Amino acid sequence: MSSVAVNQVGHLPSGPKRATLVTDATGPLPWELADSAGRIVANGTTDPRGIDISSQQNVHTIDFGEHRQTGAGFTLTADGATSRPFTIAPGLYDTLRADALKFFYCQRSGIEIRDDLRPGYGRPAGHLGDRDVPCAPDAGDYRLDVRGGWYDAGDQGKYVVNGGITVWQLLHAFEHRGGLDELTLDLPESGNGIPDLLNEVRWELDFLLRMQAPSGLVHHKMHDREWTGLPTLPHLNPQPRELRPVSTAATLNLAAVAAQGARIFRKYDAGYAERLLAAARTAYTAAETNPIRYAPVEDTVGGGPYNDDDVRDEFYWAAAELFLTTGEHRYADAVLSSPLHTEDVFGPYAFDWAATAAAARLALALTPSELPGLTGVRASVLAGADRYLTLQQAHPYAIAYAPPGNRWDWGSNSMVLNNLMVLAVAHDLTGETRYRDGVLEGLDYILGRNALNLSYVTGYGTDFAKNQHSRWYAHQLDPTLPHPPNGTLAGGPNSGLQDEVAQARLTGRVGQFCYIDDIHSWSTNELTINWNAPLAWIAAFAAELG
């Protein structure tokens, strides 16, 4: 059976425009592009691509990039199949940029979510008791005020390493993407003289500061003592909360993002910037003194472990951000002496919460500094971008991601987007159109040009994910509760199939088909702060182009 997979949101007039046809035919086929009135406005023949490894489908590419007429309701037809409708317009990604960032307010802990600001998503403040949380027996004999922050994912835990990479990516977007200093996100703090994106990020930064123990080390996470069921709204969660042990990784996350935050907040709140930098320095020194305090692998009751027993990348990342903020030789020496500084850090996926060396490299490449050898740093980013671009150009669905053995990772959608971020930074460095086009075409996959003909972003496209794993966006289980808000990214195909729903319904499937839009499929369909962050970053890049 034939089908035409397209970006169901659409395309910028001057950007690439391609679709993927699934068909049994091996030779070229005619295609037609119709406008909303059914008039044929372009036509051509398909480019056969053979069997796509990631889906095991026989596919062709349709290229209609020469068509630049704007409008809504365009459709492509080939081999008897017609695509979902889509738009061609210059401001196409403005709303996605805003919605992907508005997601974070709904994830806030410790504050009422106002229904006038997020109609249909209002709820009482959750976990006000986080103002006084005890350490677990293996974590210490004191209590901390760790209120605020964002709920990490579908559960109601708060994890420093996931919060850290999320804050870093949002602050990196603020620093290097245009228009975010003026973007209104409809927050309680809107109009206070500080850009809304910084207002939102500060909610998490304040929590990260509170997770710093008297020793200067930082607690890895805090969450419920036992797992809660679905659905459970945050303010109705009966579980007691605990601080889990400190870790070197968490400590370096705070060092990195507090230093980065200090650099960016200086313009808006000098006192807060000083506080952030002091915390960053303290954390970095504490990590140097305690370089192998690893989060335990088995700590999985009530929250995910987020274990990581290689923190060379976190040391490199924290040193990079401290250097970029202070310019001090101490941190420059740490950057230059790190073995990661000259290694190829752009693997099958560029970075995530556990692999942060590429984050350091991207920050060093774009943020002005006097670091020796910047030409080599930037060349390494371009080499990584070229690798991802080569992967994308060879892929019939234009995916800049090819995991070893076609074993798709947990949260693969975020990995696709993080790889696209490398292409975007390459475009920033060179201005070359091929990198820009790679980002835009890579976004097509997320928004519907995939084997499932599904947009992975709630509210975007004709057919989209809307039952992501969550304890309070749980409409699938309780019709009185909402679906996730528009602009929420689903995790995406995951060959591991760790949950029972995925195992029962997806076992034996290949690559792209290892996904199901079911609230119980936490291994393929969760929502998380660190998956929405790259969506927001890439949407900001696309909106800037538009």
TrEMBL record:
Reaction it catalyzes: Endohydrolysis of (1->4)-beta-D-glucosidic linkages in cellulose, lichenin and cereal beta-D-glucans
Domain (Glycoside hydrolase family) ranges: 93-538
Domain Cellulase Ig-like: 2-83
Pfam families from the UniProt entry: CelD_N, Glyco_hydro_9
Principal EC category: hydrolase
EC number(s) stated in the UniProt entry for this protein: 3.2.1.4
Active site: D517, E526
This protein's UniProt keywords: Carbohydrate metabolism, Cellulose degradation, Glycosidase, Hydrolase, Polysaccharide degradation
GO molecular function, one term: hydrolase activity
SUPFAM superfamilies: E set domains, Six-hairpin glycosidases
Keyword Hydrolase: yes
Protein family membership: Belongs to the glycosyl hydrolase 9 (cellulase E) family.
Protein name: Endoglucanase
Protein's organism: Actinoplanes hulinensis
